[in-house]
Predict the structure.
Amino acid sequence: MQKIQQHSHHKGQVNSNVYKDNVYKGNVYKSNVYKSNVYKRLSDNFSIALNSPVIWGYISMLLVLFIWSGFALTIRIIDGSALEIADVALIRFLVPAILLSPWLVSHCKTIKKVKLSDIALILLGGIPFVFLAALGAKSVPVAYVGTILAGTPAFFVAIISYFFLAQTLSKKRLFTLSFILVGILIMIVGESEGMSLDVIIGLCFLFGASFLWSIYIIGLRKIALKPMTITLIISYLSGFIMLLLIGTGMVPSNLGHFSFQQALPFILIQGLGIGVVATICFSYAVSQLGSARSSVLGSLSPAVTALLAVPILGESLSVFVCIGVALTVIGVILSSRY
């Protein structure tokens, strides 16, 4: 009898262990199924995101932001490099001219129809803008460079359009544009105690570059050409003019006296980045996100530039600079809505 009870007890333990083991296996199975479903959902969502033009529009705009910031960073380091401004300008226009040469023939008919006066407006965004921006960046912190070049054109465009194109300037738009002006003034006045004559001259060059860029923007609106056509006009004509200026010795150049490695940052950012990738990506972003949303995202460029200057160039951000950048970004965002 005792053996029977022991056997029953042992059998009960075995059945209990088997039950627990089955339950455990069942939980493991359910857990694996749950994890599999989660991974599948994540995979499906990731695939949907990759196939979404809107997502790629945001990715394109993010790339454009970093490239635009890279423009301010690279022109800031020209003075400490083996290259002259003319060499960087030549790279800026010659690289896209070479890379986009397969599309030149198909755009020739359109280019021939453009008036010389309109071409002159387009070229203001080429050599003159690059030289003034580079001269200004020699003695001015990158935060100022990025904020003035990316923020103040909206202000200048509105003022030029009001006085010379008889366009109305509403109170709402004037109010939003005041954020840009106040932001720039806070940056300058806040740092005025330690501001040298070189910095003041540099700021004047930057405002001059911004003014030229504003005229260039107005010219683009008037002409209404495709981005590829505009890029081809700027690249080929500006590249030819730069070769002429360097060849005749009208501008200082170190062409032939610097290595490919020393020129590589400018080739990647100025030539490939600004000249080709930014143009294509921004056009794509506008087509997928709309011009208003793309402009809002593009207005973040001063903030991105100021932040990147800290780890890359070791520059510091004062309270006045941070406030000035923030107000400028807000002003550009709000002004794009009116």
